[in-house]
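User: structure tokens for prolycopene isomerase, please.
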Amino acid sequence: MIFGLGSEPGSTNLLTRALAAVDERVESVPDPVQIHYHLPDPRLDHLRVHRDYAQWLEELTQRFPHECRGIRGFYDECWAVFRALNALELLSLEEPRYLLRVFLQNPLACFTLLRYLGVNVGDVARRWIRDEALLRFIDIDCYVWSVAAADRTPMINGGMVFSDRHYGGINYPVGGVGTLAERLANALRDQERFPGCWVEYGARAVRVNVDGQRRATGVTLADGRQIRARAVISNATRWDTFGLAGADESVPRALVDAAEVPPTERLWRQWYTESPSFLSLHLGVRADALDAGHAHLRDCHHIVLEEWAHMESATDAAGTIFVSIPTVLDASVAPPGRHIFHVFTPSWMSEWRGLGHSEYRARKQQLADRLIERLERRVFPGLRRGIEVFEVGTPRTHRRFLGRKDGTYGPIAARRLHGLLTMPFNRTGLPGLYCVGDSTFPGQGLNAVAFSGFAAAHRVAVDLGLEPRLPLGLDAWLSEWISRRRLEWLGRGMQSTEDGTR
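Assistant: Done. Predicted tokens:
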């Protein structure tokens, strides 16, 4: 599900903006239905989240007529957040001159976002809605993109997703999602457009180099080469960047030596934990084998869950099933008469540790069979007999090819937090080192990660003197408060609250 690839006015189509920044674009196909839900409650079964907002409200209120006012009130608040975001130029929130400028340009939008910055989706939903079944739906409607229930999903992110799916919409890049990365990389390698830029593949960074002044000065690659730089930007997770156990232990996989890990990273580890990885099935399926379930092939994305108690399960292929069938929108990515099914469900690395080669293969087959059986029983009868291509990925696959600790999808709140207030920005406590990706503000999702990239580029450009800023001393003092001292202050406040409740 690709957000941020629309063409509507505003600042939130961040993938479109990223491509435009390098004079590129991709052809895309709009998805008329974001998700087709197959859920335990009869009122929620076969619920389709339409791109058309009026159609979506009508379908939901028909199922919950007694919650008509609450449904509209909840989504009105989501739209308030989205409109505020869409009205602002989205750059670095730790750059004081930019903050001052956008506040003067649109104070109402800024106040709206400040109001919701420390709020979670569940807080707003329970203000408006009483029906527990509908609240459970809002939980899973958050879970499918944040891998957390509504009470641990920031309202800023929720407002963005629950509104943009009807504004910019979900758009599938023709040829597959890989075309996005290919277009960006090819553009950056074009020396006529971007002289001096280059992209290296298979060049794994193993260490961030730090000088005697405790400043990041470049990276060391796995082949021993060193690349010097005035700024180092890590898109690895914070676990892989700073290590797993904080500054008290040496962690070989960490990019930053334990002695150089900033104290604020310890706070981050207290507040956030890793979400599970996934068991992923990539299937090539004959379309004629799916005749009995053909009605469901009008929609690209499906969510399948038989019991609410298993919504967040990540063992034994018992949890929520995610299904994507890109050939529904773009038949060119498969041979004629064939469909591609990407089927996945959360899975912890602990399910796969210590397995020998034959045990590993057997476990993959066992859990893949379980997923296919669940899908045949609930949504796609005949799926198994139509399979011609069958590939299975596990958390070990994700860890190996994505370079992420335990193959994790990303960080989730370890406990109930104050919305996005505790999420770090791009600067780190190590000068010269910046982080981007889903373990920086505003968190998980392609559009959110694209925002973190725009924000990092802006802050780095300011720090290198390529963009204007406030007088140096004032900029440094304010940036320090926004970036580091904010987290320390929140940490002390949360610790005091915990001490007071003991």
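User: Anything notable?

Assistant: The two ends are 43 Å apart (CA to CA).
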